[in-house]
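Instructor's aside before we start: the two examples that follow are unrelated to each other. I chose them only because their records fit on one page, so don't look for a connection. First example below.
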Amino acid sequence: MVYMLLGTGFEETEAIAPLDLLRRAGIDVLTVGINGKTVFGGHRIGIETDISLSEVDLTQMEMVVIPGGLGGVASIRASQQAMDILRFAGENGKLVAAICAGPTVLADLGITDGKKVTCYPGCENSMGNASVQENLPCVQDGNVITGTSAGCAIPFGLALIAALKGQTAADTIAEQIVIR
């Protein structure tokens, strides 16, 4: 199971584009509301989440995903339960993915220490002991997948598919959406 953590102020494109691509690939994904069942993104688009934090089943987790958006990232940091889910994923070798400002939360937990990552330009100083790779839409280093920004949401989503189902599955979805 893939869990996508959504807190008030999340970046809508960074959540919806990867979510859509993952579901097109037949991957089980549940959106998780941090601040209630209906969560509003940074551009006031409301999303009815699939489950609440208390319903996350750590024994079923394959991947956890954090969209960016400063408000969404702050919501995750403010939730001990959300931080515990991320910590569990990192400590247990689960796939951990974050885009834009989201990787800074992973850095807070030490999940990105010694890893090659990318993040939103300007967040580099918040990446702790990670090796920030600039000018790349997406970077995977072991179990950590990071993306740069809303403009990189499609490559990020395709990287998530590749990590879960292989490059052929990601290429199939890329063909279906006619990415150029």
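Example two begins here.
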Amino acid sequence: MPIVTFAVWFETDLLILVAALALEAAFGYPKPLFARLAHPVVWIGNLLDRMERRWNGQTLPERRRRLNGTWCVLLLLILSATAGAALQAAALSFVSWWLAGLALAVLASSLFAQRSLHEHVAAVRDGLAAGGPVEGRVQLRHIVGRDTGTLDEAGVARAAIESLAENFSDGVVAPAVWCAVLGLPGAAVYKAINTADSMIGHDNARFRHFGRFAARLDDVVNLPASRLSALWIVLASIATRDASPLGALHAVRRDASRHRSPNAGWPEAAMAGALGLGLGGPRQYPDAFVDDAWMGGGRAEATPEDIGRALRLYRRACAIQIAAAALLFLSIVRG
């Protein structure tokens, strides 16, 4: 049985990343495989749901609920890391690292959302074009957590573009960063953290204490990806005819830090500045009204055509990330 060296492991991490990004962009995640096994996010979500119902009793003291929530997330991370590391080590031990990397890339492709995000946002654009705000709101509910019932056409279009920018960071760039650093275990752990944040990291009566650790940890692990996603959008705007790289840079420098999230403002500001739009601003969620800052300072009257422009910019940003990962992989292999 060959010994797995650090160099081989790191090269495999990058091979997994490049192949997984390319596979997911071209085909989406492998539906036949996960139709039988269920998607990893479903496993994570089901386990977390059981732990939350058992350990987040509303009559428990606040300190106890915070501690229980922390232990739930840590247990989730240990299980995710162990499963990912075992799969990667087993593959590297029994087959060549090329074959191991490609096989693991099929599994890792389920942890990225390039194609599915594009499809969901394009559905909002098509819904607006075909059925106006009513149909646009129906499609928008699949990708946002806010109250969409009162949004007009411009509000629906802005929300779709904001979701595209934020999820580019959370669903595409962040898992790529952690896959590059730690391979399949890193991508799996990141997905567990992100899923925990989306399920329990809410500032409401039920989750304010139990989900605090999940929300804070999600902010930390998304820090590098949010900055990198803004860079990819700026670079993509250079190659996009109707986008402004200088506008994107200016909006990031001026507005990113004004967002209530330490991370979401970076890709949103870059997208807004590149397209000459005003994104963000006040919004209504099911349990709270959020008076957020505007990103970009451009026109707020977004249209379905603007969603199409944002999708073109997004596709180029995804391509730039794949190219950057491939260049890094080739440079390390040749070196």
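The first strand starts at residue 279 and ends at 285.
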